[in-house]
Design goal:
single chain, about 375 residues, mainly beta, 25 strands
Length: about 375
């Protein structure tokens, strides 16, 4: 930008114009001049650009066509890449959107969450459980987070959850640790502060629930975001429940599991999920009743129709074909399809119609999904 243009166009006007541009264009413009770089890397501009993207109507329409669908994100097993494809709802064809090389520093890390274009990765090494990262692949920047290191303590699980706090305009990482013989601990990382803080796990009852459930001794991934809070399964000596963490007021609350949800079935595995925007629990059990599908299994989906209302749990179930002994369940898409890796490969299953569609992607080590393919400048001013 020439001196004459800078004198004619105020910086705030330039910032307004730049605010509507995609991330790739902004990164290129940041290399043009020092003045443009100072605007684009300014924390205020980065925050404004993020809010503009968040305020855009959520679209499930492919950028190249008028077809509706959703975005699949996956980490390949054979190559070090994070790929994004658009899955067409009509015929389940896939259109490649992006491929990003995964930095070598993440070689021993697993993706534990993603939100608004930001990924959270945690070390898979038991001795490096305190190390995690925030990564923005669209700008190639990451930030290393060092939580409290547990030394000489026998812990069961360390799980992470990532969410965006829209009230405080902040990305937050929740870290939960379950121990043998002592109460679980929690830490929260706030990106704006750039540090970890210990958070007391003191539950407040949601309406209709009893608070006296004992201390939490273990937690189980994944940690999913729904209704402004992160949720995971938690265990006490008396049983299990859903632990909820509101990312704005940073308080823990309890949500009771569906009534008698394990009765009469042999459970293979279970986890907390989000089903069509609602909090849900999905349970896979052995199909000893056969139901005409030899060697299959049953999938029970318990959905909380009204958040926080115990009487609103409803159940639906389906039998799944081509099941394998060690299946991989990746979650539910926004339209309610189940993403499962079975004997046919990665498939999407519609619980309503029972239709199964094979998704022709490379052998995947991790799979996620999103209603939109959002990119941001977050970490541009402080990442590596």
């Amino acid at each position: 930008m020439s001196q004459a243009i800078r004198e004619r166009v105020p910086n705030n006007v330039v910032a307004d114009i730049l605010g509507g541009l995609p991330v790739k264009s902004l990164i290129r413009f940041s290399c043009v001049s020092k003045s443009l770089n100072s605007i684009i890397t300014d924390p205020t501009f980065i925050s404004t650009h993020l809010k503009l993207n968040l305020n855009q109507p959520k679209s499930s329409i492919s950028p190249n066509t008028h077809h509706t669908g959703y975005y699949l994100l996956y980490k390949t097993s054979s190559s070090k890449e994070l790929c994004t494809v658009f899955c067409n709802n009509d015929d389940h064809t896939l259109t490649q959107i992006s491929r990003f090389e995964i930095p070598n520093v993440f070689d021993k890390c697993s993706i534990v969450g993603f939100c608004n274009g930001i990924f959270c990765l945690a070390s898979s090494d038991h001795d490096l459980h305190h190390i995690s990262y925030l990564w923005n692949p669209s700008i190639g920047m990451f930030k290393k987070l060092l939580a409290t290191r547990l030394t000489g303590e026998d812990f069961r699980n360390v799980i992470f959850g990532l969410a965006y706090d829209c009230q405080n305009n902040d990305f937050k990482v929740l870290r939960l640790v379950g121990f043998f013989g002592k109460e679980a601990e929690a830490e929260i990382y706030r990106l704006r502060m750039g540090s970890w803080t210990k958070v007391l796990i003191s539950m407040e009852s949601l309406r209709g629930y009893e608070p006296n459930i004992g201390i939490i001794v273990d937690v189980m991934p994944p940690c999913v975001f729904c209704n402004g809070a992160l949720h995971c399964m938690a265990f006490t000596r008396q049983g299990r429940f859903i632990l909820s963490f509101d990312v704005s007021d940073e308080r823990f609350r309890e949500i009771m599991m569906p009534p008698n949800f394990r009765d009469g079935i042999v459970v293979m595995f279970e986890q907390v999920v989000v089903f069509k925007g609602l909090l849900a629990v999905i349970v896979f059990s052995h199909n000893f009743l056969n139901l005409g599908i030899p060697g299959g299994c049953l999938c029970h989906i318990w959905v909380m129709e009204e958040y926080g209302v115990a009487d609103s749990w409803t159940r639906k179930f389906l039998a799944i074909r081509d099941w394998v002994w060690e299946p991989l369940f990746y979650g539910c898409t926004d339209n309610g399809e189940l993403l499962i890796k079975n004997a046919s490969g990665l498939v999407s299953i519609d619980p309503e119609t029972r239709n199964q569609n094979i998704l022709a992607i490379e052998d995947s080590k991790w799979v996620g999904f999103s209603a939109n393919s959002m990119e941001s400048l977050v970490l541009l001013d402080e990442g590596k």
